[in-house]
Amino acid sequence: MKGAGPGQAAGREDAHELTEVARELALRAGEVTLRYFGEVLAADLKSDGSPVTSADREAEGLLREEIERRYPDHSILGEEFGERVGSAPVRWVLDPIDGTRAFMRGVPLYAVLIGIEVAGTATVGVAHFPALDETIVACRGRGCTWWTSSAAPPLTSHVSEVRDIGEAMALTTDPATILSSPIASGWRDLSDSTRLVRGWGDAYGHVLVATGRAEIMIDPVLSSWDAAPLLPIVEESGGRFTDLSGHQTIHGGSGVSTNGHLHEVTLRLITEAG
Q1: Closest by CA position to 159, among listed 261, 71, 15
Q2: Smallest Cα–Cα separation from 206: which of 252, 244, 255?
Q3: 3-state SS, residue 138
Q4: What top-level class would CATH report for the domain 12-149?
Q5: % of the chain with per-residue pLDDT over 70
Q6: How far apart are CA 154 and CA 135, in angstroms?
Q7: What is the CATH T-level fold of the domain 165-273, as seen in this structure?
Q8: Are strands 216-219 and 75-78 parallel, antiparallel or unpaired?
Q9: pLDDT at position 272
């Protein structure tokens, strides 16, 4: 099938096609990253101080080349190579290695992230964890599917039913970052209110919420290419994803994933103390 033509929004059939293509490309990019995983890699520092490796660049290069070949009128926004603006109201948002620092240390929780916006709405989300052989894929209105491994049958992803904040597990990517942010006191209040607090971060923390293995994930700093797949993944699993202000957006600069039942109390604890 062909992608949406110039001036056309992707319909339901196109959204299904885009979801399948996004999953395929995430798996292929993951194979690129595994060729480097476990090696000692040289890294350059970007303007924000974060590292970028040859693995990041090669994986994003593959994604962009394939998207441009298949959908030449689609826009592409990637962490490593910026934005290419197309004529169709479809934009691919790419993070070839989410968790580069973890990747460089041989930690297997890094991910290939692909999000797709259709007419400004976050519609498709794919998070593939190559070293774990785990993949989760969502399409707005079509649910969220979780492969615990490539050999396992797919499961329907769903959040937990925990409704008591005192029974919840809360996660964040970097305790040092959150404790030096404006929500530091709120994070302490949230930590004191929950049963468990852990640092299983980056996209993996949000996916733990989507698959019912945790209830709350807080990222005080989150780029659009980090958030793009997370919103549909979490929402199609029955949860909620917003920024710290409570807005449903991938462009808010922060991210809060919950099982939905605990979203309002989480935001209240985080923001009232601040």
Answers
A1: 261
A2: 255
A3: strand
A4: alpha beta
A5: 89
A6: 9
A7: D-Maltodextrin-Binding Protein; domain 2 (3.40.190)
A8: unpaired
A9: 82
